[in-house]
């Protein structure tokens, strides 16, 4: 099976590398020469143009920064959709806006192609280890075709529903993650400011009704938990700027569907102020710092 891979950055690079390792013939394209060099070094074939990468591909995968770039690649001037073989499976793993995902699926369908939106969770560590979670939207048959390929890059592969449902799940999940991370940081900062040891407070809350993923797996207070970004000066992990991007996409869905998300809006404002204060490239659990006097 021939795979064309677009976007060999922090996520796409290691994802494509796992496909090469699994024995697929992978042709990669990226605008950044450094990404292409790194891809060649791990045994990938580098294409000079998107059309060259796509020629002869049975499966096309993209892992790009945003919806506009995805739109430009597939349906813009280059019109990649128009150059693919009929029935080619196109899997967009980028985190993008819902309307672009749905529009791309429609345009792909008009060209006789099959499109899935398949955003991921698990970050760069999950991409490198091949343990990502995929949230896939699209037809049953397309999902079944994609599954064996995705299985080389991820551990949990969920069929979320029809096209766009992958992006919807990703936005709902990340909005909730931002809310409970901010809430967890707020509670821990309140306890600490009043003399509580944050480790003791965390241990007790973990066995009480305040328990949640941020507290259990990703404690935001430095030194409470080994190996998490909070204990590494908030380096690595999931950047505040990327969380803000996802909160913006969630807000867009909320506004388009006239659904109120007051908690999501508040989280977006908190993380926005935090980024403006110069913390955009830190891990998102650094929101704890915003609560420290
Ligand atoms: P990145 O900036 O490291 O990589 C994006 C790559 O796309 C870059 O190498 C860039 O040169 C390339 N690119 C841009 N325009 C292109 C084009 N027209 N053709 C080919 N290549 C092009 O970003 P990333 O962290 O790898 O994120 C990629 C996607 O994954 C984003 O949608 C992001 O929201 C999502 N995501 C990221 C993480 C994470 O932890 N980094 C986690 C989950 C999801």
TrEMBL record:
GO terms of biological process kind: L-valine catabolic process
Biological pathway: Amino-acid degradation; L-valine degradation
E.C. designation(s): 1.1.1.31
Enzyme kind, highest EC tier: oxidoreductase
Gene for this chain: mmsB
GO molecular function, one term: NAD binding
Residue intervals of the 3-hydroxyisobutyrate dehydrogenase-like NAD-binding domain: 164-291
Name the UniProt record assigns to this protein: 3-hydroxyisobutyrate dehydrogenase
Segments forming domain 6-phosphogluconate dehydrogenase NADP-binding: 2-161
Matching Pfam families: NAD_binding_11 (PF14833), NAD_binding_2 (PF03446)
PANTHER family tied to this protein: 3-HYDROXYISOBUTYRATE DEHYDROGENASE, MITOCHONDRIAL, 3-HYDROXYISOBUTYRATE DEHYDROGENASE-RELATED
Sequence similarity: Belongs to the HIBADH-related family.
Keywords annotated in UniProt: Branched-chain amino acid catabolism, NAD, Oxidoreductase
Active site (UniProt): 170
Catalytic function, reaction form: 3-hydroxy-2-methylpropanoate + NAD(+) = 2-methyl-3-oxopropanoate + NADH + H(+)
Organism encoding this protein: Parendozoicomonas haliclonae
PROSITE patterns reported in the protein's UniProt record: 3_HYDROXYISOBUT_DH
């Amino acid at each position: 099976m021939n795979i064309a891979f677009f976007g060999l950055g922090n996520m796409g690079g290691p994802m494509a590398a796992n496909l090469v390792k699994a024995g697929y013939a992978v042709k990669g394209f990226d605008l950044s020469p450094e990404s292409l060099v790194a891809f060649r070094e791990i045994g990938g074939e580098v294409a000079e143009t998107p059309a060259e990468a796509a020629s002869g591909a049975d499966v096309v995968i993209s892992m790009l920064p945003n919806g506009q770039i995805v739109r430009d690649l597939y349906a813009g001037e280059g019109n990649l959709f128009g150059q693919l073989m009929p029935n080619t499976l196109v899997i967009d793993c980028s985190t993008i806006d819902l309307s672009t995902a749905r529009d791309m699926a429609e345009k792909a369908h008009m060209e006789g192609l099959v499109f899935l939106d398949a955003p991921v969770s698990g970050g760069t560590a999950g991409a490198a280890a091949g343990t990502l979670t995929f949230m896939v939207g699209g037809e049953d048959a397309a999902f079944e075709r994609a599954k064996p390929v995705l299985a080389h890059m991820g551990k949990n592969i969920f069929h979320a529903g029809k096209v766009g449902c992958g992006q919807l799940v990703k936005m709902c999940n990340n909005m909730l993650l931002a809310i409970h991370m901010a809430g967890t940081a707020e509670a821990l900062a309140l306890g600490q400011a009043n003399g509580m040891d944050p480790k003791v407070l965390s241990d007790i809350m973990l066995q009480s009704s305040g328990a949640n993923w941020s507290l259990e797996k990703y404690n935001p207070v430095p030194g409470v938990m080994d190996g998490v970004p909070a204990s590494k000066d908030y380096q690595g992990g999931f950047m505040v700027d990327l969380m803000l991007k996802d909160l913006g996409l969630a807000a867009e869905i909320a506004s388009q569907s006239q659904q109120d998300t007051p908690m999501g809006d508040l989280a977006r404002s908190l993380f926005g102020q935090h980024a403006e204060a110069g913390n955009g490239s830190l891990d998102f659990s650094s929101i704890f710092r915003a609560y420290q006097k």
